[in-house]
Amino acid sequence: MQLKLTKYMQDSVELAVKQPSFLQRHKEEAEMITLLKLDENKQHGISVELIHHVSNCLDGVFFHELIKGTGVYIESKEVKPKNPEFEAYMEKLRHQQQERDYKRMISSVITSEDQKFNLGIKPDELKEVKSHIATIFNILFSMVAVYVAVYKASKTIMTDVGLQVLMGLAGAFFIGTVEIILYAKYAYVATAPKKSSSKKIATL
Q1: Is the dihedral of CA 129, 133, 134, 138 positive or negative?
Q2: Where would you find the membrane-spanning parts of this chain (predicted)?
């Protein structure tokens, strides 16, 4: 364990190292401490064992006096210089990740004018929607055409306008129902998954 070196400790070490009773095993550390220039911006450490030994070598110098005003010394880690190539590589990776995140973020956003007009519907789905809309208009047109045709034809049979209208509506709903059933059957066949037909190999 080391404590923060103070001026009083340094002066005491300098005096103790000259004493005949000073042990050789503490001499190297003591000499290093006497050569240090204390600076407020930089701290140095001294071992607790050396402080004990100094207090034993000097008369009138006590351990508790030597450690007064000090604290535990924690050696600062040396800041290693950064590798420019490694930093450039990491910056490149960060930039690529940011681009990927940005593309992922805007992928679900409607940006083009066509997409805005289509409400973000995919082209394949839009084609199917248009096909359904066209079919609906065709069915409605067929119903109107049949209604007009039946209504006109009923005038030659009867004079009651109410019955003429009812016959026209009945014809329109009939043709509409038939076309809806046919289209539903066609849509079911078109969208149903195709079953793979397995060919049987005839054996002799």
Answers
A1: positive
A2: 132-151, 163-184
- How big is the chain by its Cα radius of gyration, in Å? 49
In a domain, 77, yes or no: no
Helix (H, G, I), strand (E, B) or coil at 46: strand
pLDDT tens digits for range 79-117: 667 788 888 888 989 999 998 888 887 765 555 545 545
DSSP secondary-structure letter at 42? B
The answer to whether position 59 is within a domain reads yes
Which structural domain, as residue segments, surrounds residue 11?
2-66
Residue 130 has pLDDT above 60, yes or no: yes
Instruction: State the total domains in the chain.
Output: 3
In 3D space, the residue among 136, 3, 160 whose CA is nearest the CA of residue 73 turns out to be: 3
> E strand or H helix at 2, and its extent?
strand 2-4
- The answer to whether residues 126 and 94 belong to one domain is no
User: Which amino acid is present at 91?
Assistant: E
